[in-house]
Amino acid sequence: MTNTPLQERVALVTGASRGIGAATAIALARAGAHVILTARTAGGLEEVEEAIDAAGGTATIAPLDLTESDGIPRLAAAIRERWPALNILVLNAAALGTLGPVPAFDPKEFAKVMTLNVSAQAALLGAFDPLLKASKQGRVIGLTSTVGREPRAYWGLYGASKAAFENLLLSYGEEVRHLSSTRVALVNPGATRTKMRARAYPGEDPASVKEPEVVANRIVALLVADFETGAFIRVD
Question: Taking the model in full, what pTM does it have?
Answer without folding.
Answer: 0.97
